[in-house]
Design goal:
By secondary structure, the chain is α+β, with helices and mostly antiparallel strands. The protein has three helices and nine strands, in the order E-H-E-E-E-E-E-E-H-E-E-H. The protein has one domain: Pyruvoyl-Dependent Histidine Decarboxylase, subunit B (Pyruvoyl-Dependent Histidine Decarboxylase, Chain B, 3-Layer(bba) Sandwich), CATH 3.50.20. Strand 6 and strand 7 form a beta hairpin.
């Protein structure tokens, strides 16, 4: 059985490559998670979990390469020159820390601004369903315009259990 995550790390990235998989890999690399095995999970923020925006806080993913990491993530790729693609996720964090929050994702042909509007609506609807009246939202969004290669964008919320945090401290990693 997996541990309940104590932190949720948000990140996003952009990549271009000769194939969709190479572009996706480069987007993961740009997001700082290319050397992890992301295990896709659904969209519940554990009660009391701390949400950390890695790019905003200037932090890097510092857990062992190859580690299995549960994550909510989304991506989109395109090879159509001039096409704008975007993806993102929103975390709705309840004011009441004993309640769980939600994480929703979107990927689309369009802008980061459009993705942000959709994510806001998704968070509102999910919180209304859960009768969560007071909450704040945090978003991670990536966008790019396809140029000469196949492009990909990715956004991820990594679910970090306490044991991985201990491993970071024990190894001296920052």
């Amino acid at each position: 059985m997996w541990e309940v995550p104590q932190e949720v790390w948000l990140t996003s990235g952009i990549g271009e490559g000769s194939t969709r998989l190479n572009a996706f890999d480069k987007a993961l690399y740009s997001a700082g998670v290319a050397n992890l095995n992301l295990v896709k999970v659904t969209s519940i923020l554990p009660a009391g979990a701390k949400v950390v925006d890695l790019k905003l806080e200037g932090r890097q993913v510092d857990i062992p390469f190859g580690c299995l990491v549960p994550a909510v993530y989304t991506s989109i790729s395109s090879e159509v020159p001039g096409q704008q693609i975007a993806c993102g996720l929103v975390v709705a964090i309840p004011e009441d820390q004993i309640r769980n929050g939600v994480i929703f994702e979107v990927s689309l042909i369009g802008s980061a601004q459009e993705a942000g509007r959709i994510l806001d609506g998704m968070a509102e609807e999910a919180c209304e369903l859960r009768r969560m009246e007071r909450f704040k939202v945090v978003k991670a969004i990536a966008e790019c315009t396809v140029e000469n290669a196949i492009a990909s964008v990715v956004a991820a919320a990594l679910m970090i259990p306490q044991s991985l945090q201990r491993n970071r401290r024990d190894s001296g990693a920052g």
